[in-house]
Design brief:
The chain has two domains: 263 residues, Aldehyde Dehydrogenase, Chain A, domain 1; 180 residues, Aldehyde Dehydrogenase, Chain A, domain 2 (3-Layer(aba) Sandwich), CATH 3.40.309. It is 38% helix and 20% strand. The chain contains 16 helices and 20 strands. The strands form five sheets. Strands 14-15-16-13-12-17-18 form a seven-stranded mixed beta sheet, with helices on both faces. A six-stranded mixed beta sheet has the order 9-8-7-10-11-19, with helices on both faces. Bound molecules: 1,4-dihydronicotinamide adenine dinucleotide.
Length: 486
């Protein structure tokens, strides 16, 4: 028995499901068929208000616990998620259209990793003792920020909810999370599970809606921090609104990342990396290496091997564990991808394979590879967020570094080479936050994840995330008399 797709109610506030049918209806489609699988309501101002009040109340109680006690709740939630991975993965597949083959290993499991990791760290979050001249000394205290808001994209709904909630809660904050309006189902399960694991009511609330609800959360004076996973244009708006109130932010935004394949690379590994970096989640991954720079001397061999490997993609029922390639998340996203494919053809790039909409219900398109792409083409400059790989030729190292960096984005970068000195040298020169050497798109919780340049601010995961969900108080302690001038 898997979870019903229609949730008990649209929102989860103060430890329970709540509904306010005055909110505009939101239909949820199963991307593989287009069928409506749930109807929810956008949060009204009254729901947003209740969620923020509940979070504020819970935060004070939660912050008064020891880190070990808080961590225990997070680790229990991780265990529950692990035990229900199958049901959560089926729901994620129905919400996003991503194949079960992926959701069962990369979504709830990655969320559980974050809860376990930050649950483990919670008890070790301390300040410092600082000795000073004359016997004076100081100490620092690591304090929570207060109520944090999480705003999610549609590609990894469970993972994004957990990646934001886990460090926030470990540090003693509460959260109001707004999932993407396209994929609103799984964050509700995360909320239910946190309650079951012992989180006080109001610690993690979920409210539904689109940008208007996100904007109301971002500007509310009860909110200390906003963490967004989304596109660069949304990031600019949310960052500006948060800055007006001097709120903390984490911005995990889009990219157009380079993947550089040198002539000495292991060809099969490089092709595998390019597949993972372009076609996983049907290309709907922010860190994808969509500008694949291939050394001219191996370009044709690379393309032949890639075309061969793409024959192995199993495009079909996403719930069938054998399926390895699913639909786009929505008709709108599919149309964006189709329009970029038309632009690429119009600009003179060579469509080697794929890019065809499948004649079936749902939002299906075959994985597309463009060759002979040049740096100035729109398909090489703009984030497509779909299964479209651009292959660009290069001749030497300095040239490819300069071209790879010639973008406003800086989320990820990958290098394939057997020459390890060159590998490290090139990675060091690439302007990107999350890099891969002879690999692509790995995101274990132990590693900081995030971008430079327009791709974002702050880091998720790893100990680095603690810095972004807490603040230091410093206390000077004078041991002698106070000497004043008059
Ligand atoms: N760096 C990262 O970790 C990741 C980045 N992304 C990026 O996300 C994008 C795709 O996701 P989308 O859901 O289409 O992004 P989006 O930017 O349209 O929406 C992201 C979230 O922001 C909310 N939002 C929209 N306008 C808002 C406003 N004015 N104030 C507050 N909230 C607002 C949306 O409702 C949604 O929940 C891509 O650009 C992708 O690269 C996706 C996954 C991971």
């Amino acid at each position: 028995m898997t979870y019903p797709t229609q949730p008990v109610a649209s929102h989860y506030v103060h430890g329970a499901y709540v509904e306010d049918s005055a909110g505009a209806p939101m239909e949820v489609n199963y991307p593989a068929t287009g069928e409506v699988i749930a109807t929810l309501h956008e949060a009204t101002p009254a729901i947003v208000d209740r969620a923020l009040d509940a979070a504020r109340e819970a935060q004070a109680e939660w912050a008064a616990l020891s880190g070990t006690e808080r961590g225990r709740v997070l680790r229990r939630a991780a265990d529950i998620i692990g035990a229900r991975n199958h049901d959560l993965s089926v729901l994620e597949t129905r919400d996003t259209g991503k194949p079960y083959q992926e959701t069962s290993v990369a979504d709830a499991t990655s969320g559980a990793d974050a809860l376990e990791y930050f649950g483990g760290l919670a008890g070790s979050l301390t300040g410092e003792h600082i000795p000073l001249p004359g016997g004076d000394w100081a100490y620092t205290m690591r304090e929570p920020l207060g109520v944090c808001v999480g705003l999610g994209a549609w590609n990894y709904p469970t993972q994004i909810a957990c990646w934001k909630a886990a460090p926030a809660l470990a540090c003693g904050n509460a959260m109001v999370f707004k999932p993407s309006e396209t994929t609103p189902l799984c964050a509700l399960k995360v909320a239910e599970i946190l309650t079951e694991a012992g989180a006080p009511p109001g610690l993690f609330n979920v409210v539904q809606g689109a940008g208007r609800v996100g904007a109301a959360l971002t500007t509310d004076p009860r909110v200390a921090k906003v963490s967004l996973t989304g596109s660069v244009p949304t990031g600019k708006r949310v960052y500006a609104a948060a800055a007006a109130e001097m709120k903390h932010v984490t911005m995990e935004l889009g990219g157009k990342s380079p993947l550089v394949i040198f002539e000495d690379a292991d060809l099969d590994d490089a092709v595998g990396g390019a597949i993972l970096g372009n076609f996983y989640s049907s290309g709907q991954v922010c860190s994808n290496g969509t500008r694949v720079f291939v050394h001219r001397s191996i370009r044709d061999t690379f393309l032949d091997r890639l075309a061969e490997r793409l024959q192995g993609a199993v495009i079909g029922d996403p719930l069938d564990p054998a399926t390895s390639f699913g639909p786009m998340v929505s008709e709108a996203q599919l149309q964006i991808v189709q329009s970029y494919i038309a632009k690429g053809v119009g600009e003179g790039a060579r469509l080697v394979t794929g890019g065809q909409r499948l004649d079936r219900p749902g939002y299906w398109i075959t994985p597309a590879v463009f060759a002979d792409v040049t740096d100035d083409m729109v398909i090489a400059r703009e984030e497509i967020f779909g299964p479209v790989m651009c292959v660009l030729d290069f001749d030497d190292e300095d040239e490819v570094i300069a071209r790879a960096n010639a973008t406003e984005y800086g989320l990820s970068a990958g290098v394939f080479t057997r020459d390890l000195r060159r590998g490290h040298r090139v990675i060091a020169a690439l302007q990107a936050g999350s890099c891969f050497l002879n690999s692509y798109n790995d995101a274990p919780v132990e590693l900081p994840f995030g971008g430079v340049k327009m791709s974002g601010v702050g880091r998720e995961n790893s100990k680095a995330a603690i810095e972004h969900y807490s603040q230091m108080k410093s206390v000077y302690v004078r041991m002698g008399r106070v000497e004043a001038p008059f």
